[in-house]
Amino acid sequence: MSDTKVSRRKFIKYAAGGAIIVGVAGVGLYEAWQNGLLGATTKPVDTTPFVIDAWTSIRQVDPPSDNNNNAPIILNQTYEPLVWFDKDKFTLIPWLAESWKASSDSLTYTFTLRKGIKFHDGTDLNAQAVKSSLDRTVLINDPQSAVSYLNNSLKGANAYSTTKMTDADAQAYLSNNSVEVVDANTVAIHLAAVNPVFLDYLTVTDCFIVSPDWVQKNGGVTPGKPNTVMAQQAHKAGTGPFIFDSWDAQGQTAVLARNPNYWGSPYNTGPPTLGKVVIRELPDTNTRLLNIKSGASDLTYIPPDSIFQLVDKDTWLNQGQLKSIASGVQVNGTYPTLSVRYFALNQNVLDASGNPKPVQPFKNIKVRQAMAYAFDYAGYLKATYNNFALQPNGCVAKGEFGYDASIPAPVQNLDMAKQLLLSAGQDMGFSQSNPLNVTVWYFVGSANGKNATTILASAVNALNTGFVLTPNSMPAGAFFTANGNGQLEAWVLGWPGNFTDASEHVGPFGDFRRGAGTGIAIRAGYNNPNVISLIDQQAAETDSTKRANIISQIVKAINNDYAYIFLDQPSGYFTIKNNVQGWSVNIPTNIVWSNFTAGIVYLYPVGRK
Amino acid sequence: MKSDLVKIVDLKKHYPIRSGVLGRTLGYVRAVDGVSFEIRRGESFGLVGESGCGKTTLGKTILRLMDPTAGRIIYDDTDVTKVSGRGLRKYRRAVQIVFQDPFSSMDPRQTVASILTEVMHVNGIAEGQRALEKAIDLLELVGLNESHLFRYPHEFSGGQRQRVCIARALSTDPEFVVLDEPTSSLDVSVQAQLLKLLKDLQKKLDLTYLFISHNMAVVRHLCDRVGVMYLAKLVELSDKKDLFLEPLHPYTQALLSAVPEPDPTVRREGVVVKGEPPSPANPPSGCRFHPRCAYAFEKCPSVVPELMEVNNKRLVACFLYDEGHVRETG
Amino acid sequence: MKLSSFILRRLILLVFVLFGVAVLVFLLTRAAPGIDPIFAYVTPNTPSSAYPVIREQHHLNDPLYVQIWYWFWDVLHGDLGYSPSAGMPVSMAAAIFFPATAELTIAATIISLSVAIPLGILSALKSNKWQDHATRLFVMTSSSMAVFWLGLMLQFVFFYLLRVNGLPSLPPAGRISPDVLVSQSITHYTGLNVLDSVLNGNLPYLVDSLSHLVLPATTLALVSMGLTARIMRSSMLEVLGQDYITMARGKGLPERVVIYKHAFKNAMLPTTTVVGLSFASLLSGAVLTEKIFAWNGMGSWAANAALANDTVGIIGFTLVTATIFVCVNLVVDIVYAILDPRISY
Fold first, then answer.
1. Chains with ≥3 Cβ pairs under 8 A against B?
2. ipTM for this model
3. pLDDT grade for A597, boundaries at 50, 70 and 90
4. Contacts A2 to C, Cβ<8 Å
């Protein structure tokens, strides 16, 4: 089965543009306090709408069906999960839950809820509401969402997801009582297996807590079917600083209104100062640029290829500083996204009937190593991203738990590359007079893929070793099918993380047992039993120091096998008016697929000067 | 002899040929090039010639549907060449036209009633109920009836449509009607009915006709005098009887030899005309017929023959009848 | 045949047309290389273990004719399927995106006709004079311009330049301004903002909706008016050469009446066909214009569905478009019958 997946593909396409990652939950507490924004109750409400121009379409707005376009930009302001990430540290802190504790066998997590929090519809946040929300996500089981994380952890959820999802199947799942109401303010969650990243799963939009009353009055819950009422209408069913006031599906515009009764988040108190927030879809970069320059919007995203209309090009490229050249507008950045783009070198290329091909150009490690030495990393980042990206030091993204900054990133060394290829030529029988031609693939429309394949091919071909690379492209559909069937010799794609844990990357890159849909290793013919056993170890390790150590070993092991060339980790930044203050930036919990397209802004406690 | 109703004096109609972005005039198409004749009150004057010879242009120019390039049109002893406004209106009430193609000469979106009354309205002849009543009278006059009043042109047969066109022409109570090949698009049987109608109407309403046609048989049936046009010029003019009995101009002879003879026992000497008619934009020198004429001699390409009187006041433009030239035919 | 039975016959025919289109598109989406129909039902988050169930659920393992049968069964029960790229059922997507496109198309057609028809007439009346050349130059230029360039220029001049110089400006994109959206609320009966604001009697909403229509509608109109103007010119020239026009002038009708009553109305017949066709194709969505002006209509939906391999969305979109085409053609035929008494059904 091919791994071709709609949103993944979308990600790869848009990731070309880099990313905005705009803060999560109140991280700017201290600055906000300094700016006098703290205690917003004393500040008058700012009645001018705060306008956000979003990049891509917001197709639907129900948390359990969040298909990762732009909905988090709305949902993050209006809904809240049990736990969210702490500012700048990417560690989890209690949010709607006051505290949690894990059982000794790590199979049950018990959450104590904060008291006195009300949903926007006036009902109380309690244990039953948490249970209803999580069970609803499992029962709907919208494959467009990130529900599989929850399925992988909750007892009985995975079994349910492989049924036909009839009412009887739903009852069978509910009888597990995997989300258990202990008392009004205590909820226990039972896991199917030990899972050190379970709490991270709770941060994705699927696990936001929604008022069960509201859902009951608006479409209810049908097993296996998305709730189209919730998906296409605004809902006053969250607990966040803003109320989801209206949703114009036609204009793809959301209006959020200040929640006057907001409880204040872990960092702050009082309701927000912004009276209304308007989030609208503007797919055309030029329009967004005109809007922000002329003051018609407050915050937006401009991709790297147009950014030098707002910041000075030389200052950025030479000194790495974002110096504004547009009046009243600043570009803030940069912040790492959780996406890693790679160049896979397939060690086991298959033919159409699934058998290994007779010639395997990348089976010899010397060839793979030579590729890593031949690639012009700096040139690629500049040509593709105008330097709005980092060079990864391995498969784990900077910002994820388990990221080890001490691991060195590869550097270009053409002499080494040439020696390795000459030596490999002797092993494999290719030489200048008897060249070996190899195609390297990208899909039509992928600027990154085109750049990366061209840069590698021109460097390798210039070595005149008889190892000749030819970049080639296929339409996306055909590309992903061939790729999923293991037929591509080498290809360029990206893999984004859904939350800040290395498990999002070590599994796909290292675990050969995964299917082509959730794994890269099988498609690249990369099977290292040592790596696989380390992956299993970290998945069962509850001690975070030990786990980080194992992850570091996995990254080094994969690097030493030269299975992939790691190309880039796009950097986020955002464009905002100068008079806006109190914003804070962090890698958001549910970076999911959306940030690189429009940016997620946490607007509490933002205010205008 | 009857008095002249219409008198044409050296009438010319030239169209400029433009080309290029700036539309420079490269030359002129001489559609009518110096034609003079007169039509007598109450007669049917036939104008014959091949298609493209300028007879339709001549008809439209006489009616002032086109402005002549040069020459004069005198109607009822009044020069109407340059009249405009009220004078032109008055002239147009008195003269009417029936076109060749009954399909293109009526607005497909108008009913017969509207077609007929519009003319009356514009010319202040009748309004409202009176106009409708008059329209019914006109329909009955042309052999149609009241039931046809609110039909559209496409609901009629070709012959009926031409009757409507005639009715429209008659709605201004004209004295002079130009009939521009009114029967040529119709079946032969329908043609005969229509010709009979035209003859009756002429008698009943005391009309004067200019009958334009390329069909010699029809002209023979309807007309009193006949003018023959070739390439924008009149080449022969005479009474019908004389013309059909003894055609003078070689072109007329050729035209007549093309008329089907109803009696198969009559054998007639064929006069064959060579080639295609030349372009009026670039007419041949001298006698315009000379490249196709079986009798052409050295004078023909160099000198333009004028209409001259021969044999009992007949007019012909041909050097064969010039003094001093002996006709040698075998 | 009477008009009513003609319409009935055409509507019955519509069913067969839609059936044919549906089968064809269904087969095409299944035959297209590299498009596994399961793409429509999964995301990267879907574990491969769930794939067999999803295939089973959507009958993807069955032979094609069985799949078509299931699909038709659902359609007959009013279920056109769920379009993941739109995040909603197909019927809902059509109900949401079609009014947006319809509003834009109607506005563009009004602008296009009100410019192209007078220009076509002027061009014909002043045939080969400078007015004709100027008109043809204008029409050719505007219809040859790239939509995205034209759109960007209009935005730059009428929004940005005016705004940064402190002058009243036109909105560059979207269908309604944030402040109007926040301060006014209206009930959407039709999905056409202009019509809805009139029905609600909300003047600020109406003014704002109209101002948002100006730039996208002008862009669409400029690129589509060329054909209309040229058809108008040529059919006008043809009609002006007819005897009844000579006749009408001969009758002494004022030139204005000759042009309007006799020439214009007859010349409108061929123009109606062209306008009808271009109206129908605009109704199926103008991808670039909708993208530039953030106008969420049929074009955006179709483009997103195609990019996401959303076969359900593509089939749904095609059915809606086919219906539009058949209906618009029907309306054109009816208009024809009104304009031209020669035509009967």
1. C
2. 0.74
3. very low
4. 36
